[in-house]
Design goal:
Blueprint (H helix, E strand, L loop, with lengths): L5 H17 L3 H8 L22 H13 L5 H17 L26 H11 L4 H17 L1 E2 L18 E2 L5 H12 L6 H27 L10 H10 L15 H4 L14
Antiparallel strand pairs: 1-2
Length: about 270
């Protein structure tokens, strides 16, 4: 070893390793990165990811195809069309998200028929970038629009993966998968397990993604303003059931009529109430 014995060489190497750890060298950084994170700590800080302006029309087919990809469904399709598109265009940190997590939104969250998975995916994408003070009005605008819009709108044309051509439309008056799908099935005559219903939800995934991106783009440009009108039933029921009122039991912002309209299939809360 050119006059250096084995013991001396090992001592020098050992000293270098120790100094690297003490002075914050590569070894120290590697060790630090392997340490457990502090409770509730988040790399970069809360809501630290930065959004990008996207083209809604270009993202719509991504959402549609995402719905069909491995059968992952609406939550995955909507989320991937936003964050996945950013990953494809800009790389990190967007490409580090485990996108398949949003498969849980399929069929109203694991087949429970609760919140429409497309809405879950879109709202989750918004939550990567904005805290509730800024995000809540955006989510409310998206959900209100969903309640009051006749779906589906998007048509994949020759790229249809389920059923091609025009489909019947319906207005859900609810952000719930159970209500949205049920109303469409009643209007269209197609069963819940039909190919037509699957195609309908794939197209709605694209519709929701486009609307969510429009809202996010407006937010980034400083032009976002809520436009959707609150249903009369929300104020009507809230007169008695909001916090501080006679019977303060109301939780949420949904249109009350789909579940409390007084029809033979729902609770009679308008005709003979209380």
């Amino acid at each position: 070893m050119n006059g250096m014995n084995r013991r001396t060489a090992l001592g020098i190497i050992g000293g270098a390793l120790v100094s690297g750890a003490v002075l914050g060298g590569p070894l120290a950084r590697a060790s630090a990165s392997s340490l457990p994170a502090a409770r509730f700590a988040q790399q970069g800080g809360a809501f630290s990811w930065k959004p990008h302006v996207l083209d809604p029309a270009a993202c719509a087919p991504v959402a549609y195809d995402g719905y069909w990809h491995n059968g992952y469904g609406c939550g995955y399709g909507a989320f991937y069309s936003i964050v996945g598109t950013m990953a494809e265009k800009f790389g990190a940190p967007y490409d580090q998200f485990p996108f398949t997590m949003l498969e849980v939104g399929k069929s109203g969250i694991s087949d429970w028929g609760t919140i429409c998975g497309a809405l879950l995916g879109a709202a989750s994408a918004m939550a990567l970038f904005w805290g509730r003070k800024e995000r809540d009005p955006m989510v409310s605008e998206l959900f209100r629009w969903y309640e009051q819009t006749a779906f589906p709108i998007y048509d994949p044309g020759a790229g249809a993966k389920g059923v091609a051509g025009t489909l019947p439309v319906s207005t859900s008056m609810s952000p719930l998968c159970h209500v949205s799908v049920g109303k469409w099935c009643m209007v269209s005559g197609f069963a819940e397990k039909s190919k037509e219903r699957g195609e309908r939800c794939a197209r709605i995934t694209a519709d929701v993604a486009m609307k969510a991106i429009e809202i996010m783009n407006a937010k980034q440009k400083g032009t976002f303003a809520a436009a959707a009108k609150e249903p009369d039933s929300v104020a009507y029921c809230g007169d008695c059931h909001n916090p501080g009122k006679q019977s303060p039991m109301l939780k949420g912002k949904m249109d009350c009529t789909p579940c409390h309209s007084g029809s033979p299939h729902t609770a009679d809360k308008f005709k003979n109430h209380p």
